[in-house]
Amino acid sequence: MSVLVIIPARSGSKRIPRKNIKLFCGKPIIDYSIKAALQSGCFDEVMVSTEDSEIAGIAKTSGASVPFMRSKENSDDYSQTADVIEEVLLQYKMLGKIFEFFCCIYPTAPFVTAEKLKKSYSLLAKSDADAVIPIVSFSYPIQRALKIKNSMLSMIWPENYNKRSNDLIPTYHDCGQFYWMRTESFLKQKMIYAKKSIPFEIPESEVQDIDNMKDWDIAEMKYRLINNI
Length: 229
What we know:
- This protein is α/β, with parallel strands linked by helices.
- The chain has a single domain (3-135, 173-227), classed as Spore Coat Polysaccharide Biosynthesis Protein SpsA, Chain A.
- 31% of the residues lie in helices and 21% in strands.
- It has helices at residues 29-40, 53-62, 81-94, 114-125, 183-189, 213-227; strands spanning 3-8, 23-24, 27-28, 45-49, 101-105, 131-137, 146-149, 152-155, 172-174, 178-182, 197-201.
- Strands 1, 4, 5, 6, 9, 10 and 11 form a 7-stranded mixed sheet that branches.
- Strand 7 (146-149) and strand 8 (152-155) form a beta hairpin.
- Helix 1 (29-40) crosses helix 4.
């Protein structure tokens, strides 16, 4: 079976400039995604999709390939991950390379490990599912979520006010770290959340959105604690 990993890393980032190659605990953050992919042994090719020459250079130094540059159409603030993936797969097809499976790993995912990649790939390969999506549980029941309207606070679902936590179904959200998919299924559906997706749960301590510098600092603290550095 031929397996590809795609690491999408465009240059633009408004809230954290040069986010994808900013130093995280002493190394460009994209290096963690590349190294996890290489160490997993899952992939025939580890590639970075970028339109930026500096990112491409750092990616190659870390061990990834950059066989072609990303188009301008898929390099702006409105570019969707699914569009980038489709472009990469079609470019490889033009080069005569077709992959049965692929994994998309975000470049700002330092908590991704080789072991997680191997386990989640095994889940997909042994199933008839289209995709494996890493998830994390909400730390508080979302059924008791609050809203603010006209400066006043109220429950979104007041019918849950007197329900016990044990009676509320567990809820989860996407970790925003990586996605495994069957290539054929993706090219038909062109969606990351495929119709037949199975979950791969990750502990909350190993998940952190990195949208601003406060998030970045928290992620570094978590990483140092987990890895005793």
